[in-house]
Design brief:
- The chain is α+β, with helices and mostly antiparallel strands and 135 residues long.
- It contains three helices and five strands.
- The protein has a single domain (4-133), classed as Hotdog Thioesterase (Thiol Ester Dehydrase, Chain A, Roll), CATH 3.10.129.10.
- The longest helix has 16 residues, at 26-41.
- The radius of gyration is 15 Å and the shape is elongated.
- The N and C termini lie close together (9 Å).
Length: 135
């Protein structure tokens, strides 16, 4: 199993829906923000460096299991862990915990596909990238 990393993100006022909790669409933003943070801090490659190499990530599949709401004033702790890399895909498990009580608000899995920015097509993840993500 690979390393598990975390990022903390506060709930913002514009995340709240008419039911006074975080709208379900915002969870995808939180996961993306955590992965962006972790690329630099944990994997030691910024998104900008990744793009200079000619690569980008797109979401191929997202599975989110909503368990408990987050509300205004909450801070979430987002844990992610690369489960596997297969061809052009990286499978990432995640958990979003409410930092106040450490209970899971949402968990699931994201499948990211590596894209060659010049061609716009998927491309097998190179060994040097695999090594960075499989720590």
């Amino acid at each position: 199993m690979t390393s598990r990393f975390s990022s903390e993100i506060p709930v913002r006022p514009d995340d709240i829906d008419m039911f006074q909790h975080v709208h379900n669409s915002r969870y995808l933003d939180y996961i993306q923000a955590a992965r962006y943070d972790q690329m630099t801090r944990c994997y030691k490659v910024t998104m900008e460096e990744f793009m200079i190499m000619g690569y980008g990530w797109v979401v191929k599949k997202a599975t989110l299991n909503f368990k408990r709401p987050l509300i205004m004033g909450d801070v979430m702790r987002i844990f992610t862990q690369v489960r596997e890399i297969d061809g052009s895909d990286a499978v990432v498990d995640f958990e979003i915990l409410n930092a106040r009580n450490e209970k899971v608000s949402c968990d699931g899995q994201m499948v990211y596909t590596m894209i060659n920015l010049k061609t716009g097509r998927s491309e097998k993840i190179p060994e040097e990238i695999r090594e960075k993500y499989l720590i």
